[in-house]
Amino acid sequence: MNIFAFATVAVLLFANPVEGPDTIPVISIEGNQLEQFPEIALFDRMGWFYHSGDHPELAADSTFSGSWTPVTLAMWPGHVPDDWDGIGWFAGLVRIDTTLHNREVALWGRIYGGMEIYVNGERAGSAGRVGTDYKTEEPVGLFDPITFSFGEKDLQFIAIRYSNHNYRKAWDKAPIGPLLRLGLPVSVLYQYQSRIDETRNNRQISFLLMGILAAFAFLHLILFFYYPPEKANLVYSLLLLSYFFLTFATVSVGLTYNPDLFLRHLYIEGSAVVLAAIINIYFVFVVTRRKINWIPAAFTFAGLGFLYFVYSNPVDTRSFLVMFSYASTITAIILFSKDRILEGQKDFNVIIAAYVVYFILVIPRTLLISTDISILWAEYQFISQIGFIFIPAGYSMYLAKNFASINQLIKDQLEENERLAAEKQKLVEQKKEELEREVLARTADLDKSNRLLLDSLNKLTAAQDQLVQQEKLASLGQL
Fold this sequence. Notes:
This protein is α+β, with helices and mostly antiparallel strands. Helices cover about 60% and strands about 15% of the residues. The radius of gyration is 44 Å and the shape is rod-shaped.
């Protein structure tokens, strides 16, 4: 038994020895409260008690005595009775005014196990199925409203047969008990339907985001194969795939109540968060043309450590993974801002703007969701989901602009090469014509020289013949 329960029991026993229901604190509910407010959170009220075991007779108020242990109905971590073995009974006395006599009310909320509701010993309804172990138990999340009517007496006895065997395996950070809310049927139905619609819309947005992430990852992978020197497309496609698996695991975690599947999705979610944080840093270094230094190395080693904790204790590690992811995001925006301010890299404006929108839409919900501070957009999960896509969108816009610049540069280079090739071809043709003219001129000169040489040879031959003839005649004259 924890300290809180022990102190409560001690005070009760000291002030009023256990003699019957009249000595037990009660939960007061007035009709005007249900008229003014759409619902009353019963799990926040004091006056609930717990009894171990699975005995059907505990549904009757005659068994409600000193053997029951004071407890918070939600049984948040740290407030779970030591003898809780996964199945037991909750009970409380509810004092109502005459306006609620024979009036129909409704219970709704969220549970992580199976539940049966009894009002004044009569079964009012159930959610899921109570089981003796987590294999026979059928847990539900948000359950359909359970409608019933109070009797005509002022003290109403509500007993809850409840089982939650999964918490020891996966949900040690979630409430163990039922999160019950009471209200008038019309208000409860509206609240329930609103929550269902919100859950469905968030799920549809998540699936849409998954489709966008997968499409962009495939696109940038194609761009990398089209132009391999730009390695940012490859790194970015890996980053988008990490975001894809992160979104998939987050949606799956919210859809399953099987502890084995729950843990499996937590493994995927944690691994995706670690990989996305690490790849994000490397992407920044590739885009900003930085040499790999101690920053990516530090994130890599830290990520390996987080992966170990993800697979050893995924539930406790989730909050630390959020901080690790934010550390990566803040480091990225600092590096981009530094290059924008000091080096005048105006192309990074779109990335910086995307980060600013991300921080405005996402950070308030993360930091203020557990406080009383209210910011309009922080109350809606789909706003955070939309904000989540801004960083990939900013990266894609930058890479698209960069790719367009590269394409334009290649196009200009091709046009320049074509121009140079045309000029070269023109010079070649000019040289060819000049060489042809020179060849023709030299050929003509050679022909003229040949003719002169031939005339000289003919004259020389004629002179030689004439000289021979004269010598012959001289010889004849001597004879």
